[in-house]
Structure formats: structure tokens, C-alpha cells
């Protein structure tokens, strides 16, 4: 059991600790996200690629390390249905390559490159 005098002495410390945690949480850096359905772009170095979802007609993903944080770019399995310039070169992109991707922002912050006006995938080096 906590004695009242001891409890009162620890309350200010707990409050200060909570405020410090909230302040630090506000300092985290994350990539800016666009509204779902809006045009979004990401440029940076590819740090990971997962093409396995293509095996079941899902979207392949690549993590792009941008100046404002990591962004996941999705490329649909059916490339023949995606007229975006450069999307057909996705199988040749490797980890370490620099890319610029423009597409539709998803609710989860991903960018899907496929068939919208202004969608494109470009390997920069």
C-alpha cells in the first residue's frame, strides 16, 4: 500500500515524465503523407524490394529512403495494365538504386504507381 505522503511526492514526477514522453513523441520524423487518392511523389535510394506478392497477383513494394523519411512504393503485378512511364523497368531496379516515383497516395501512406495521369517510375542512376 502506498502511504499518502509518498504518493503525493511521486505524482509530480509521474506528470513530468508523461510530459517529457509526449514532447519526444512530437519530435519523431516521418515522411509526409498526402491525402488518400491525391498525387504523391517520392525520390531517394531504394533500401528494400519485395516482389513476392506478384506470385499471387498482389502489389510488389519497394522502400524508398527519402530526405523526409521512408516511403513505400507499390507496383501492381499486372504491369501490362499500368501505362505509367517507366513502370515496366521495375523488375530491373535493385536495392541501392536511386528512383523517383509518382502515383496515387493510399490511406496508409503508400504510393501506388500505375495508371493515373502523372504516374511514373524513373530510375535515376
Plain-language structure description:
Residues 1-30 form the signal peptide. Keywords: Signal. This is DUF5666 domain-containing protein. The protein is α+β, with helices and mostly antiparallel strands and 125 residues long. It has one helix and six strands. The protein has one helix spanning 4-25, and strands at 39-50, 60-66, 69-75, 98-105, 111-112, 120-123. The chain is globular, with a radius of gyration of 22 Å.
Taking all Cα atoms into account, the compactness measure Rg is 22 Å
Which runs of at least 5 residues are low in confidence (pLDDT < 50)? 13-32
Spatial gap, N to C terminus: 66 Å
Mean pLDDT: 80
Q: Beta fraction of the residues?
A: 25-35%
Largest sheet, strands/sense/barrel = 5 strands, mixed, barrel
Shape: globular
> Biggest sheet: strands side by side, in what order?
1-2-3-5-4
* Element string (H = helix, E = strand): HEEEEEE
How many beta-strand runs? 6
Measured as a percent range, the helix fraction is 10-25%
Instruction: Provide the structure class.
Output: alpha+beta
What's the arrangement of secondary structure elements?
Blueprint: H1 4-25, E1 39-50, E2 60-66, E3 69-75, E4 98-105, E5 111-112, E6 120-123
Parallel strand pairs: 3-5
Antiparallel strand pairs: 1-2, 1-4, 2-3, 4-5, 4-6
Protein name: DUF5666 domain-containing protein
Signal peptide: 1-30
Keywords: Signal
Give a quick rundown of the structure.
The chain has one helix at 4-25; strands at residues 39-50, 60-66, 69-75, 98-105, 111-112, 120-123. With 125 residues, the protein is α+β, with helices and mostly antiparallel strands. The chain is globular and about 30 Å long.
Amino acid at each position: 500500500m502506498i502511504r499518502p505522503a509518498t504518493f503525493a511526492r511521486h505524482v509530480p514526477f509521474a506528470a513530468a515524465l508523461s510530459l517529457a514522453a509526449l514532447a519526444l513523441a512530437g519530435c519523431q520524423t516521418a515522411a509526409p503523407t498526402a491525402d488518400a487518392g491525391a498525387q504523391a511523389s517520392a525520390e531517394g535510394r531504394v533500401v528494400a524490394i519485395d516482389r513476392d506478392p506478384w506470385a499471387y497477383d498482389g502489389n510488389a513494394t519497394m522502400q524508398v529512403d527519402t530526405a523526409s523519411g521512408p516511403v513505400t512504393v507499390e507496383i501492381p503485378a499486372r504491369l501490362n495494365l499500368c501505362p505509367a512511364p517507366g513502370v515496366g523497368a521495375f523488375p530491373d531496379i535493385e536495392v541501392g538504386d536511386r528512383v523517383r516515383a509518382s502515383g496515387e497516395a493510399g490511406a496508409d501512406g503508400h504510393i501506388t504507381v500505375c495508371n493515373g495521369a502523372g504516374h511514373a517510375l524513373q530510375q535515376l542512376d
